[in-house]
Amino acid sequence: MRSFLKRSLYAQVIVAIIIGIFIGYFYPNVGIALKPFGDGFIKLVKMVIAPLIFCTIVLGIAGMEDVKKVGKVGVKAMLYFEVMTTIALILGMVIVNIVQPGTGMNIDPASMDTSGVQAYIKEGEQHESLKDFLLGIIPENVIGSLATGNLLQVLFFALLLGIAFSKIGDAAKPTLTVLQSFLDGLFALIKIIMKVAPLGAMGAMGYTIGKYGLSSLASLGILMICFYVTCLLFIFFIIGGVLHFCGFSIWQLLKYIKEELLIVLGTSSSESALPGIMKKLQDMGCSKPVVGLVVPTGYSFNLDGTSIYLTMSAIFIAQALDMHMNFNQQLTLLVVLLLTSKGAAGVTGSGFVTLAATLPVVGHVPVESVALILGIDRFMSEARALTNIIGNTAATIVIAKWEKELDVEKAKQVLASA
User: Fold this and answer.
1) Which residues 6+ apart lie within 8 Å of 224 measured at CB?
2) Which of 52, 176, 249, 407 could be joined to 285 by an S-S link, Cβ 3.0–4.6 Å?
3) Predicted confidence (pLDDT) per residue in 193-228, tens digit
């Protein structure tokens, strides 16, 4: 047993999560004090994400024979993202209307403590317009974008630089050789960072249970159950159906990426698994440029779990306040969320900010009412992050197959042996 724990990161993370729950429940002050372990691990991972994406995209695109294919991959990826997130939004809306988890609560908005959500509301009010969002993709300073980890700006610059290198041919080979060595070093560094993943998972889980307690789940448990069930329906029926159509099994995929999923479960951040997911997608036969384009882009445009959370939370709040939305108001909410959900990055708290930014658009629901779900938001963030990472992994496989940038036989063999 001891030797198995030494070898298996999967087992280590499971044990760490259990220990974190135990500490947070029985010794809440100690659990809260463990927060730096979770924060530190996420910072370690985020440290390598921007350079990893930069090198992967530049090397992948520079090595492509047909640069026009990059545009085709990008367009197909965006269409796929839009369809899947729309389905996620509609599914969340349908389930919350059928179950009506908030109906009968009849909460008075004036009685709620909104002190804990003022920062989210303020940030939501500053939500950028579509024009600002698009202009913001163009970096003013490439080094600054790498330093701050602005993934879309890094993606944009790497895309252009990869095309430029492909144009100059052999003259780019010395630089590409250096970048390849740097990328190999980054993957070696990631292996070192993953050794402390159990500590990160224990710290994040200990803090969550210690801070909010298991008792905070009881009063809003129906919403949480509905949300988790909806995420499972989306994963196994929608994503699973798309994968089955392409000849793959959702069960085999989940087994293949189980270590990354456990890290996401422990840290509540899908970013924590991004380097590992990119490496595994390449190892199973997806081409480097497709992985480099689809995965990081999906972190801003293919947030399926966040989409489900946004529609369910908004309508639940309206039900709880006895301010039920009519069909037109729900349709307005859906249209607005088709845009605002694309700006929510896959990190803890961003979904809450997007909810605070979107709720006022409906009109009659006070934005301060987001305080109603603040206590359970952290517990729902795990399901959001897991659904997001599974959706992006599946999207990469599907798009790679469509573009004939996937070694199908190798992929099936790798998944079957996982």
Assistant:
1) 217, 376, 379, 380
2) 407
3) 878 888 888 887 788 778 766 665 555 678 888 999
